[in-house]
Amino acid sequence: MTFTSVPWLELAVGVPLVGGACLARVRDPYMAFRGCLALASISLVCAVAASGGYAWGLTTDGTSTNDLLYKLVGRKVFTVDALSATLVPILALIHLLTAISTSRTKMSRFSFSWLLICQAIRMATFACDGWDLGILLVVGVLPPYLELRWRGRPTGVYVFHMLLFVALLLSGLAAGGEIAVVLLMGAVLVRNGTVPVHVWVTDLFENGSFGGALLYSTPITAMYAALRLVLPLQPSDWILVAIGSASLVTAVYAAGMAIVQTDARRFFAFLFLSHASLVLVGLELHTAISLTGALALWGSVMLSMTGFGLTLRALEGRFGRLSLAEFRGLYASSPALAVSFLLTGLASVGFPGMSGFVAAELLVDGAMGANPFVGLVVVVASALNGVAVMRAYFYLFTGVRYTSGVELGITAGERVAVLTLTALILAGGFYPQAYITSRHHAAQAALGSRNEVTPAVEH
Q1: What pTM was computed for the model?
Q2: Which of 22, 52, 219, 430 is the 20 to 30 Å CA partner of 297?
Q3: What span, in angstroms and rounded, lies between the C-alpha atoms of 41 and 93?
């Protein structure tokens, strides 16, 4: 058996799917935890192999005609290309790190089998196109709903918005012409939490588990749907302007709301909404540079916001629901978590030397070249997000020292997650060329262009 004959991508999806179903029978939380780590690690290795094979030219799409799925349906369902080659491994990584950082106190309340099944659904979604993608997008809305039901939390807000999303999505896939573009863009805006259909995001973070809401939101699946389903239809300029305008309004509004929140979960939800909207802004400008910046920012936000959310999740595990209404002074109790909070928060807003810096610069540069007003609004939104991050840091970690008779330091699993994300964030900041070049090729493919990398990207 050779490297090219192994269906790495199918294994990356199938291992967590089958493993998660088998793990559902395990009643010991710690055994389920160890099984989840093993299965998620295997999935990550397979995802890296699929993407690496594509990047090095060993395989064309990370799949094999000898795999079971190909024999069942008679065609290839999953593929790795310039766009998904980076996203699939990142998805596998953030699920693995979420499992690793789960504390012992939460293991009895956290379903590791469900995490693996959801991971398989999301990775399959990011490796599909057309109706396959549409079906998986519909399936993907079920896990948060089921989790809310299991926790006995209200589901009305989430159900209303997701029914709207599914209706627009399926209608758009079935329709043709410009009406299909309008319907699909409407589905993208709902799924991304664009104002005024953003309430479901804050509701999910307030009522669902932090880990489940985090993994459902941070991949920014709406951006993938827009690139796979909308851009190939050659949307009119007014449609791109409409989505860009709505995203700009949401980015500024959510950033402003993040500044004034007194609940840490709502703060994180609005901060994420602002970043997710900034990623969509690159679609409006419809240029290689702006889309390159948006794609690069997408990957950076996935990593940094996951790390930021995992830090808040770890703090919640120690201190309960966090309030930003008073200074907590938690630095003395958890200095490593304070550093992680600041590092991942600043990385998400494009602080120099971190992974989001070059991506944000490319997005702003492309915006300024196409429309100076858009570029100015992007800068304002980023600045407000930076203010929100620093405000939350001061409220949580400064002030009168918090003292406790219980050890509140960082755990081994949390340390692994923090150090892994730190290494990736700093590597993306100091050595961004390979990643930016790959995102530029993905942008060219999405735009139907095969030009050489422009000087702006080279330097």
Answers
A1: 0.91
A2: 52
A3: 8
Q: Is the pLDDT of residue 383 over 70?
A: yes
Using CA atoms, how far residue 394 sits from 262, 310, 435, in Å, is 13, 18, 33
Query: In whole angstroms, what is the distance from residue 371 CA to residue 241 CA?
Result: 11
pLDDT recorded at residue 1: 59
User: Per-residue DSSP letters for 191-242?
Assistant: HHT-TTS-HHHHHHHHHS-HHHHHHHHTT-HHHHHIIIIIGGG---HHHHHH
Mapped onto helix, strand or coil, the DSSP state of residue 326 is coil
- Nearest CA to 259 out of 380, 378, 369 is that of 380
Judged by DSSP in three states, 419 sits in helix
Do residues 396 and 328 make contact, with C-beta atoms less than 8 angstroms apart? yes
User: Are 244 and 280 within 8 A, CB to CB?
Assistant: yes
Of 273, 338, 284, the closest CA to residue 308 belongs to 338
Residue positions counted in the chain: 459
Could you tell me where the beta strands, DSSP code E, fall in 272-333?
A: none
CA distance 355 to 275: 14
Give the side-chain half-sphere CA count within 13 A for 142: 11
What is the rounded distance in angstroms from the CA atom of residue 47 to the CA atom of residue 43? 6
Dihedral, 20, 21, 25, 30 alpha carbons, nearest 10: 0
Phi, psi of 238 (to 5 degrees): -65, -30
Considering only 15-19, 59-63, 192-196, 406-410, which range has the smallest mean pLDDT? 59-63
CA distance 138 to 213: 17
Q: Which residue has the tokens 């050890």?
A: 407
Q: What is the mean pLDDT of residues 230-248?
A: 85
- Please list, residue by residue across 236-266, b when 16 or more beta carbons sit within 10 angstroms of its beta carbon and e when fewer do: eeebbebbbebbbbbbbbbbbbbbebebbbb
Query: Please, what's the largest Cα pairwise distance for the chain?
Result: 65
What is the b/e burial string over 141-152, where b = at least 16 CB atoms within 10 angstroms of the residue's CB? Answer: bebbeebbeeee
- Give CA separation, 233 vs 176, 178, 186, in Å: 9, 8, 14
DSSP state of 298: H
| Assigned token pair, 379 | 């800068």
The 10 Å Cβ neighbour count of residue 137 is 25
What's the whole-number mean pLDDT along residues 398-424? 75
